[in-house]
Amino acid sequence: MPVTLINVFSVPHTKEAEFVQWWQEVKEHITKQEGFISGKFHTSIKPDSKFNYINVALWENEEVYWKAYEKSVTPMKAKLGELGVEMTPALYRVAFEY
Fold first, then answer.
1. Is residue 7 part of a domain?
2. For a pLDDT cut of 70, what percent of the chain falls above it?
3. What's the rounded Cα separation, in Å, for the pair 35 and 77?
4. pLDDT band at 17 (very low <50, low <70, confident <90, very high)
5. Would residue 98 count as lying in a domain?
6. What is the residue range of 68's domain?
7. Does the pLDDT of residue 62 top 90, yes or no?
8. Other residues' Cβ atoms within 10 Å of the Cβ of residue 53
9. Residue 54: CB partners within 8 Å, gap ≥ 6?
10. Confidence check: pLDDT of 82 > 90
11. What is the average pLDDT across 34-62?
12. What span, in angstroms and rounded, lies between the C-alpha atoms of 86 and 64?
């Protein structure tokens, strides 16, 4: 059953351009992982939002997501630390549609 990753980021305004450029590189790696279906990267329209970037990605199932996560988490956390970015990821399943 597919799962949705919703990953919110709090990026310092002075680091936004560098973060977005880095994310372009990250996405090239992520999209090649087994079980990745699709993703959308959002930016807040309100400049003072706590979470100014949100990644929403669809994965085939939880197992393949965790395999991909294990491959990328260490270097990702190191770069986010360098940039002063807070990241809060969580997996979700659709409860209902409307």
1. yes
2. 100
3. 22
4. very high
5. no
6. 3-88
7. yes
8. 20
9. 6, 7, 8, 9, 41, 42, 44
10. yes
11. 96
12. 24
Could you tell me which of 62, 46, 64 has the C-alpha nearest to residue 54?
A: 46
Residue from 3, 4, 8 nearest 54 by CA: 8
Helix (H/G/I), strand (E/B), else coil: 5:
strand
Give backbone dihedrals phi and psi of 17, rounded to 5 degrees, phi first. -60, -45
Identify whether 15 is part of a domain.
yes
Q: 6, 54 in Cβ contact below 8 A?
A: yes
| CB atoms inside a 10 Å sphere around CB 51 | 15
- CATH number at 7 reads 3.30.70.100
3-state secondary structure of 68: helix
Q: Structurally, how many domains does the chain consist of?
A: 1
Other Cβ atoms closer than 10 A to 71: 13
> What are the contacts of 76-83 at 24+ separation with CB within 8 A?
76/26, 79/22, 80/9, 83/11, 83/12, 83/15, 83/18, 83/19, 83/22
Q: Is residue 62 part of a domain?
A: yes
Are 19 and 9 in contact by the 8 Å Cβ rule? The answer is yes
